[in-house]
């Protein structure tokens, strides 16, 4: 349990309520976050792997809506294999040959070949399914696993006990390092808590405190990840990261070359933005605004209309400290997107992109509790393996726009954004009541 007065943003047995009015925007925003980070769009690895995760989880929901079980990890593995094959992997003869799926058929921008610099491609090219106890690459800890695992935090109706298992198993498909598995799971937990914070008006510091609390329940041996989360959860410890020479930050958290380091850097920058806002509000003496300091960017002059302001300020802090890690920027964008949303994710309901193969979701539980009833529920019976084989250096380049209008004019014809919004619409159609 959390301490008195702290909202329980991560509940063991209760999860996100998909009927919430904030939920569709949270889904769109989190899916757009890797795109909004501003890396080269064509074949972007983070964008594509995140999209593959979403496509796999949408498939799980389709099976659930048809009254049948599907193994989320198996679906994810097959989705990632499709990505690897599309990028030139020559799978062994005994590896599965998953056929073209919805993403490959209907989302050409998201399935186009592109660069692949991390451990994911290497692990997938072996044709073997990595598991927590039987890793393919035992030491793999490259940071692209973070963007790939973040969408698990959007799954409704599951508490952290189920979410941890799902995220760990997914990360372990390619990454055998317990540190990387724990860091990826911690990001999924952070996304989940940040979405819940929308309704309770909780601060990012409270979100991080909840992530650190629940991450301590993960049994993987990941002392560095847990230590860095605990450091960031302590206000004095994280403040010390930003004092003195610029290299103090990277000296203590790393450069972002691993999943753990990228997670810590991204969260540290976001929390520094919030802490600066809190100090300004407190020194101004405006007591009427102190309850909502977590909703301000740097100026403390009111709540941002989206997470773009917060993300821009956090990315600027990283740039000022010499951090060039794109994965750290992805963490900034995805957490800001989960908590406040992104301008580019704002769409009018009647104009939202529609997918050709959408189905109406079966009734879901309305209280966010884990359910084995008619709601799409992840987690298949033991032994089930049913997948789809049968069916900035500167903030301008970070892609963070100043307003929803700016986002609309800049990327109305961007095919990656359009396809991500369509994929989000599929998710909302399948997972919402």
TrEMBL record:
Residues 281-295, 348-360 have a biased composition (Basic and acidic residues). It holds the Pfam family ADP_ribosyl_GH. Residues 1-21, 281-309, 348-411 are annotated as: Disordered. InterPro entries: Ribosyl_crysJ1, Ribosyl_crysJ1_sf. This is ADP-ribosylglycohydrolase. It comes from Kocuria varians.
